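To illustrate the input format used throughout this study, we show a single complete record. The first block contains the structure-token representation of the backbone; no residue identities are included at this stage. The design step must infer an amino acid for every position from geometry alone.
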């Protein structure tokens, strides 16, 4: 390096390229294949993507709030404390899913419910009983019975305090042995 030539003290990046300076005065600006314009484009693209991401988060948060508020219609705003519900009425046939209607003062609402499709359908799913063990088979009727005592009535429905249920007896048959096996054959 010659004595009269200025020494390079710094290099920096600017949108238009690379700047070199010496003791506070700019020596030159070198364009690096449009590097400055590409940096600007990337900043703009990044800013746009960031704004889209924020907007998407806001929209999904609001949608989640609306979904939660939708289910709080008559249930959440009701000031009535003494609701009276009727029995579950199946949609089709005499068992399966159905609707139960409740009233309180001048308000009514319907709830989904289910009527069992087994032996419990004679007293419904809303009356919970504690049952004793099955009794001996009555040979005259061919049925065995057991009794149940009411433990809980859901939805304040009217339930019988004691019930008796029956089912047919299973006929025990002697197990048949396999032919051709055992002693003597």
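Output of the design step:
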């Amino acid at each position: 390096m010659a004595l009269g030539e200025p020494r390079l003290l710094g290099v920096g990046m600017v949108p238009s390229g690379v700047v070199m300076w010496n003791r506070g005065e700019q020596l030159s600006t070198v364009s690096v294949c449009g590097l400055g314009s590409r940096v600007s484009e990337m900043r703009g693209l990044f800013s746009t993507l960031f704004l889209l991401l924020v907007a998407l988060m806001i929209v999904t948060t609001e949608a989640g709030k609306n979904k939660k508020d939708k289910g709080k219609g008559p249930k959440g705003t009701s000031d009535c404390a003494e609701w009276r519900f009727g029995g579950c009425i199946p949609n089709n046939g005499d068992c399966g899913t159905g609707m139960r209607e409740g009233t309180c003062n001048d308000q009514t609402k319907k709830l989904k419910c289910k009527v069992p499709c087994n032996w419990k359908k004679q007293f419904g799913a809303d009356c919970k009983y504690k049952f004793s063990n099955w009794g001996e088979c009555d040979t005259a009727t061919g049925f065995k019975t057991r009794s149940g005592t009411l433990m809980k009535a859901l939805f304040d429905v009217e339930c019988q305090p004691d019930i008796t249920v029956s089912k047919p007896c299973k006929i025990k048959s002697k197990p048949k042995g396999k032919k051709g096996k055992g002693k003597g054959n």
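Structural context for interpreting the output: Confidence is low (pLDDT under 50) at residues 70-76. The helical segments are 35-70, 74-77.
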